[in-house]
Input
Amino acid sequence: MTPRLADVIAVLDRLYNPAWAESWDAVGLVTGDPDQPVRRILFAVDPMRAVVDEAIAGDFDLLVTHHPLLLRGVNSVAATTPKGRVIHDLIKSNTALHVCHTNADNANPGVSDALAAALGLQDTRPLKAMQAEPTDKLVVFVPVEETQGMLDALSKAGAGRIGDYDRAAWSGTGEGTFRPLAGANPTIGQVGDIEVVAENRLEMLVPRRNRRAVVEALKAAHSYEEPAFDIYELAALPSERGGGRVGVLREPMPLRDFARLVADNLPRTEHGVRVSGDPDRIIETVAVVGGAGDSEFDRVRAAGVDAYVTADLRHHPATEARAYDVGPALVDVAHWASEWPWLRDADRLLREQLEGDVDTHISTICTDAWTLRVGQDPQA
Output
């Protein structure tokens, strides 16, 4: 069975939810008909001219890139501009383009997970953790004999899901008391009489987005005319998603050896690997950020790591971060090289979750901006 583009995008959106993207970003489908069949998929970091030509020449139906083609708003995609020509060629060749950028940076596993894995880091956690999904706690009081039916109804509406478990709840038995007033139509008791009923206090977690559906389900399932319930908004907690990762090497090693490990496990570029720090410094804990990472120095310093691996480090932030040798050693790699390992993860995860037969390929065209470096010691 050949999947449609819409089927492929549905899987990519589960892996890299567009809601996880930064507000300034431009992710999602750029070109393509959701109903078109997808037989071949090409993964690449950049939608550069050479990569687009590779996709068209290889008869790929879908090109998935990390970086956007149209990050900033445009008023025209006329073929008179380089990007306009790319758009025209993609459409004419029936090649779809889909972008997973900061939503892939913030995913788990995401771009920095792939970089951390390439360097052999263990016990990783987010450097810049996103908040977990807003959650409520629902408390409802229900006659003891109705507890299981209520639990089923609330679970079906979205309550009680914790990780890989559903129908999770706590209950305890007590006494509920009430007196129906004139105009009431009580399920139990008579107007004017005080009633005491054995009830369970049922507690369940509810994603805040499901609050309305869960309350409606509660009222529909409860036998009382006026069910008693409470909703508590819980404190925001960090999630396992977010930018960057902090982890531990399998074995501590000198900075010079760690830099060689980085160079050996990332694609080669003319940029190479630049290092700031004492070559004999022992490295054990490491922070990584795929892509440009000098905006995260404060978090890296607070994490107390021995080394920081990222890309696009500028002179002044780097020298300030290394001032007086109190910060982590810095390992600066090419932007493209730091994000290329993610392509293998995206390829594997998509194939694992996509129903249907597709042929996938990872582009090895180096789209790093720098193509030549002179004055470098070839023996270094």
The chain has a mean pLDDT of 95.
